[in-house]
Each structure stands twice: as C-alpha cells, then as structure tokens.
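User: Show me a protein chain along with its predicted structure.
Assistant: Here is one chain, sequence first, then structure tokens.
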Amino acid sequence: MHLASSYPLYCAEALSRAYYYPSPYVTPMLKYDGLNGGSSYGSWSGFITNRFSIDATVTITMDGDYSDGSGTINVQFRNDTTTTITARAYIVITEDSLYYLGTNGDPWHNHVARDYVPTDAGQYVSIPAGDSVTISQPFTIQTGWNEDMCEIVAWLQTDGTRKVWQGATKQVMELNPGIEEHEVEVASIYAVTTAPNPCVSGTNFSFSLPAGVEYGINIFDVTGRHVKTLCGISSGSQDVVAWNLEDDTGMLVGSGVYLYQFESSTVNTTGKIVIR
C-alpha cells in the first residue's frame, strides 16, 4: 500500500486504514492488532507466525458470484465464543503481481488494496454467542485490473483494541457465475443443523438423507480430543439425533466450544456447538 497519491498503486481508502493504526506512518511498516510491528521485513515473519499459533474464535465462510466485471460476495461471520462479539466487518478487493519500480523495495507488489466494499469504515455487527451474521456486498472489477489476480479479503476487527478476530480470502475467479438451482436445493435438503446452539442441557442434530444411509457424528473438544460418537441409519425423512452433552463414558462435558464431524456416503460436513 502506497501513501503518496502520485504512485499508480495508491488507494485513498487504504491510506485511511493506515491512519486507523498508531503512528509512525513510514514505509514499510507492519500494522497488526493495533500495534506497530516495525519497519524491518526480517522481523515480520515472527509476528505473523505467533499470530498463526493463536486459535481463532470466529469462523468466516465466503461465497458469491462473479461474471463480466461485476459480482456479489457473501461473507458469513460465525461467533464460536460463549459471549456476544461487537466489531466491524471489513471487505476489500486486492490485486496481486503488480509491477511498479518505485524508489525502494521490491518492484513486484501483492495484496494491493483496490477497493473497500462498501467503504473503509466497514460495517458494525453484533454477533450473539454461537450465532452468525452474513453480509452481502456487490463489487466491481474495474478496467485495468487483472481479474485473475484479484482476491477478496474479509476480516472482523474490534474498534477499541483493534483486535482482529479472524480473516479469510476468496479468489474472485473462484466465484461461480451461476450455480444450478437444483444443486442449491440438494445442499439445502441434506444440510445438517444443530439446535439449540448455544445450548445448556442438550442439542439436536437435524438432517435428511436417503433411506438406509449409515451416518456417524463424532464430537471433539477444541484441543481435538474425541468426546462422543453418535451413529445410526437414516430413515429417509427428517432425522433428529439428540446429544445430552455426555461423553462416551457417560460424564457431562463442560461449557465451551465443541466441534462435530458428520460423515455419510451422501453428506460430509463439520460444524461447531457452543455449550454455556
């Protein structure tokens, strides 16, 4: 990101985001979680590696459509904690592999901010524990941008501490121009849902599979330790499988976030359960 408007890679919204963080505003400078990571490239990898080691408590999924220079991106932010998250959701179009021979640094530039959608102010969201919000935004790839090198970046960030809860990326060309309606219907029919979620005394897995299909539901805690297995054979109509929050030994599990893996010959999916 270039600070001077005379540079061909300049983006006013990106400059505004730079001033969201504390000074100094020199190039280069790593900015993360409200902190300055220094201006030395050599030190950046350490900061980034340390952040990778911290488990995220927000899950972001992205989909949408794109064709002939315009599209729509849908971003779902799911709160996997046991408390409400209030933050701002940001979405930005970036472009890779841009060549510009400036006064310093590498002439090849990646993740160059092109456009914040809708603006660099982001969108305020309040996500209850175990719940999610989805933001849908139209976007445009302008003439002169290489759509094959464009990526959509989304993240959730707190205003006060500037903590980043989680981020995600999606290549623009991975967004399908049109999904067949019957494919969407099949996905809806075979979807696995959990309710209540968050829960206190128990939760139910609901799904519908063809009759006679064997299924298994394996539940794990956040460390990856196996907690419970539920299995059976589908009835061909709506099946509901209850979990009373006991592990395989009959002991009640504690509050927190748990992961489940649903497996069958028809549907394989994962999800999270929040126990209060």
